[in-house]
Structures are given as C-alpha cells and as structure tokens.
Amino acid sequence: MKGGVEFVIPSQKGEYEYVGFDLQEETVRFVFPCRYIPPEKAGSTEEEKAARARELKAEARKVLSLIKQVQKEFSLGGGEGETSRFYSMIWLLRDYIDHGYYTETEHVIGKGDHGKIVWKRTLRDSGIYFDGSNLLYRDFFVRKNKPDDANLLAQIYKCCLAESAEYLGFLYNVSQTERSVFRIDSEHDVGFMCYHVQRELGRTFNSYKKVLLRHLLTILQGKQGRFRAVSLYMHDREFEYVFEFLVNSVFGTENVHEYYNEYYYVIGEKKISAAKLRPDTIMRGSRLGDPDFFVIDAKYYNYGYTENPRDLPQASAIAKQIGYNFYLHENYIDEKGNGGKTFYSIFLLPFAAERKDGELASIDCAFRLVGYATNRKAPMASGRAENEVAVCLVDLKMLVNVCFHEAHTVIEKAIGKKEMRDALRRAVRRIF
C-alpha cells in the first residue's frame, strides 16, 4: 500500500461526514461510528498494538459488511467511488485467501504410469516386447492436467489481485502478491485485459469462472471510467439505517407488518390512503405465553455520547410512540381479559459502554436506562405503560457483534440475541 491505512474513531457524531472506507489521495482512511472502539492506551506494548490492529481490521470488516447490506436493502448511495468495484475487490481477496492464485489447466500427453491412457498414441508410438508369455507395451501415453500459470487469465487475475491488495489488502493481511506481466496503470494493458475477459465470459459455461470473470471485469472497467478510487461509505446521518437494521435483527421477534395502522382520507365516496403508522420493531415477552410486547423505536441520536437533552427524541417522536401504544393496546388486547397484551414503548439509542481492557463487566453493562418520556395530561390513558416511553441506551459494538455472532472477549462470545432481549427487558422494566 502506497500510503498506509488510517483508522479514525470519532469522539462525537458529526465529527466526520461519513462512516466507512474511503481513499484520501494515497492514504486509505476508515472511519468508524462514534466511539465504536475505545481509544488506544498511551504507552501500549508492541503486543498490545498488534492485538489492537487485528481488532480494528476485524471490526472494520463487520462495519463494511453492514454498510454494504444496508445500502442494498435501502437503495442508498455508496460514496463517490464505484462501490461495485469495491465489492469485486473484496470478493477477489477472499477468493485468493480461500483458493490461492487462479490457474487454468492445459491437457498434455506424455509417457507415464498415472492418468488416462491415450490408446491411439500408445498403439502408434510405444514399442512392444514379448516377456515370454505376453506382448507388453514398453510405455503408456497418458493424458494429464498440467497447471498453466502463464496463461492470460491467470496473469489478469494476478494483476487485479495486486490492485485489490493495494487498496484493501490491509483488511485481510494480504500485502505482497506475485507480479503479473500486465500493468494496471497501462491504458493499453487494461484495454487488452478487458477484451480478453469479455471474450472468455462469452464462451465459458463454468459458474465459478463466470462469477470470477465478472468481478475481474468490474475491477478493470473501474480503471477505464471516471471513478478510479475505491470507496464504500455512507454519510454519518445515513448510518441510522444501519442502526435500525441492527436493532431489528437483534431484538425483533414479531412480524411488525401485522401491526401497521393505515390512515386515509374519505372524500365523497372515495378512500384515499394518507400514510401508515409503522412501528420499527416489536419484541415479544421472553417467557412462553408472556403477553407483553415491546415496541422499539431505534433512534441514531447523539444523546448517548453527549448526554445533552437536546439530543433526545422530541415531541413528535414521543407522540407517535404513545400513539402506537394506544392503537396496539386497544386493538390487540386479549379478549379473555386478565393477562391481556400490554405494549411497552422504548426509544433505543446508541452509546459506548465502559469496558475494562476491552471487556464488559456483564451483559447488563451493555444497556443504560436513561429515564422515560411522557406527556403532562393523558385523558385517554388506560394505564401507566400506555402513556410512557422508556429511553434506553445500547452499546453499538455489542449490537454488531451479536448480529455477526462474532466477538473477541469472553463475555461477548457467550451473548446471543436471546440474552440481549432479556437484558433489555430487565433494563426497561425498572420503569414499567
């Protein structure tokens, strides 16, 4: 890599305009979400620095994977570079790690004891001798598969792999790769490689090879277009989509679409749809037969980092959440009466939980109950829970690790979605 990689961990939201990976001139910059990883300790040993480098790379891969997934799901943009080229580079690096350099095989015929016998050549060119009882061939000509490392496609693979390693090799500890006869900075070479890959793509029926060729072509065509840099990021304000995705993935237990309430206008004899009241996430009670539901609104707000009340959800969000409560309570209560469903509302915001040597003391430390939101007067209120919205913080890094089923610390490795849901219930039930 020409300029190295710079990992940035903002101390507050909005400090950088984006989250993700970008090429800054000759330096690769990766920006994490706010306080995603604690700052490096001063005077860290070489061993601690190496461990932190491994952690940064592992966490960067997870964040990038989330960005990719959410951008696709929500049809969001991906920075100013060609994101498909980024994906192709990632695919190529993973392919290299899993399978090594791509090689094609050429069929050769020669003398040997192993391989499929080519009888026509054996009968024509092999001498025959008599051993006293049988006629025997002195040699067998057999067909063998010989790796052809010098073929064009193998060289194109090496060229594209070197380009991928230049930008993204730091994520997978792929730095130096074998040289290719082609140069990625040569317009002539790139044009020739594109032609050859397209020709191969048109005549191959091998599914793996087709995928490989498409990725090679994407990488090469990126050098021909106006987007020569490689980027994958989303604007900081758009990271709310990632947070919503994480919250729903970890805490969602019910099909939220079943609980939508549609609003419409009646004009004359016509019904005109206005909008739908759409809860973000609905989490069911933990015990079998538990009638309680938790209506969660994921808010990627700054309060967890600033503790400034101005960074909490304001009146419109509170009113909407309480509106969910009344609608759901009135329409989905158990007809048997006792033990009817109760819908509890939660604003869930991100924060960075305290860790000692990178380790949480317990799963409950991944949550912090802030308080609750309500209104001054509630003439329709039938119960306390229907008129209050709990405000709770959740550790963002923990959410990501649980979503990926991947963590580095002992406690976090033992935590799954069920444990996270139970911990959230314990936190908010201190209010309800």
Average pLDDT reading: 80
- 3D shape: elongated
Numbering strands along the chain, what is their spatial order in the largest sheet? 12-13-14-16-15
Whole-number count of domains: 3
- How is the biggest beta sheet arranged? 5 strands, mixed
Regions with little confidence, pLDDT below 50 for 5+ residues: 379-383
Beta strands, count: 16
Helix % is 25-40%
Order of helices and strands: EEEHHEEHEEEHHHEHEEEEHHEEEHHH
Number of helices: 12
Strand content: 15-25%
Please report the distance between the alpha carbons of the first and last residues: 55 Å
Rg of Cα set: 30 Å
Structural class: alpha+beta
General description of the model:
This protein has helices at about 45-75, 85-100, 120-125, 150-170, 185-205, 205-225, 240-250, 305, 315-330, 395-405, 410-415, 415-430, and strands at about 5-10, 20-25, 25-30, 105-110, 115, 130, 135, 140-150, 230-235, 260-265, 270-275, 280-285, 295-300, 345-350, 365-375, 390-395. The chain is of the alpha+beta class and about 425 residues long. The strands form five sheets. The chain has a five-stranded mixed β-sheet with strand order 12-13-14-16-15. Strands 1-3-2-9 form a four-stranded mixed β-sheet, covered by helices on one side. The chain has a three-stranded antiparallel β-sheet with strand order 4-8-5. The longest helix has 29 residues, at about 45-75.
